Request: fold
Amino acid sequence: EGKMSDTQAKKDVAAMVADFDKAKLKHSETEVKNTLPDEATLKKEKTEGQLMKEIEVEHKLKHVDVQDKVVLPDQTTIESEKKEVALRSEIEDGAKLKHVETVEKTQLPTKQDIEEERRLSASG
Reply:
């Protein structure tokens, strides 16, 4: 199991090629499968190329002055905002707020009410 050197392998292959009998080969027709692009494809690729070149190249743009268009609020909007600000400040200060007592109007059922309802549902 001796390993063959690269130069020896190359010499063996060269000898096999030189000794090969070319009469054993069959004739074959070459078939070109790489079709050339049509005119529309060429035009499309050329247009795409021009567009890419335009994108990559520095543009010559015109200077434009930016104009901020600020719409001022009308008088009714100003008045409503003033009222809202005044109400918020009154709430935060707490000076004009009145003290109130909370009155609960919902009553929980008593033990008798629960027993009465159970008796009615059991008989009905």
